[in-house]
Write a structure and sequence with these properties.
By secondary structure, the chain is mainly α. The protein has a domain of about 170 residues: Penicillin binding protein transpeptidase fold (Orthogonal Bundle). The chain contains eleven helices and three strands, in the order ββαααααααααααβ. Strands 2-1-3 form a three-stranded mixed beta sheet, with helices on one face. It is globular and about 45 Å long. This is Penicillin-binding protein 1A/penicillin-binding protein 2A.
Length: about 240
């Protein structure tokens, strides 16, 4: 696949956004998913991840008890594997049948993959808001960086918004509080040092709206897979001014 030139939608002048010379996947290369973010995910989302086989009865019971005490939902009972199953099924309906399918899928995933493979699958399929799915495209969109170039605080930010990306991205003050909670939790779990925790709490997260870079890295290769291979010039609806 060579010679494709993608042009922006600009009424005054057509601007080439880029040339695609080869086809590639938008998912992160497994080796580029930092080990530490996989380690950090467990105490935040699923403390018994390495003990259960997809479903955590103890976790569900604990969540029900905490929610009853609080009089509202303060904890979820879904394991990391169940969350992955939900993302793969692409069904967020709050029905019993969906929950049953999710449970069956989670058990199947545990039977087919190792724990590390499950974490890799999770980070390549999890939703990060803004129609972004997978850690690679999220890193490019929010910080303009490939996954293996993300800083410690940037990785923590991505963990911060996992539970409700659209909610936290629109509410930076609340996101900061959750960011601090996650950093303190990692310190309490002895996954980061006291000094690292202090640095995290002082860090200022600078979100860049890297839509254009994201388009160049992700959308352009996707476009070339959906057009007539005989075409050499492709006019897109992407506006390079934004």
């Amino acid at each position: 696949m060579t010679g494709y030139v993608i042009y922006s939608k600009n009424k005054k002048k057509q601007v080439p956004l880029g040339v695609v010379s080869e086809e590639y996947d938008c998912k992160a290369v497994i080796e580029n998913i930092p080990t530490r973010i996989k380690e950090y995910l467990v105490p935040i989302e699923d403390k018994r991840f390495f003990e259960h086989r997809g479903i955590d009865i103890k976790g569900i019971s604990r969540a029900l008890l905490e929610n009853f005490k609080a009089g509202k939902i303060v904890q979820g009972g879904s394991t990391i594997t169940q969350q992955l199953a939900r993302n793969l099924l692409k069904d967020n309906s709050k029905t019993i049948s969906r929950k049953v399918r999710e449970t069956i899928k989670a058990i199947q995933i545990e039977d087919q993959y190792s724990k590390d493979e499950i974490l890799n699958l999770y980070f390549n399929n999890v939703y990060f808001g803004k129609n972004l799915r997978g850690i690679r495209v999220a890193g490019l969109y929010y910080f303009g960086k490939e996954t293996n170039k993300l800083s410690h605080s940037e990785l923590l930010y991505l963990l911060t918004i996992l539970r409700g990306p659209n909610y936290y991205v629109k509410r930076p003050e609340i996101a900061i509080e959750r960011y601090k909670y996650i950093s303190n939790t990692l310190y309490d779990s002895k996954l980061i040092s006291k000094n690292r925790n202090k640095k995290n709490l002082k860090s200022k997260i600078c979100l860049d709206n890297n839509q254009l870079k994201c388009i160049k890295e992700i959308a352009i290769p996707y476009i070339t897979q959906t057009v007539d291979h005989k075409e050499k010039k492709i006019n897109s609806t992407i506006d390079n001014r934004y």
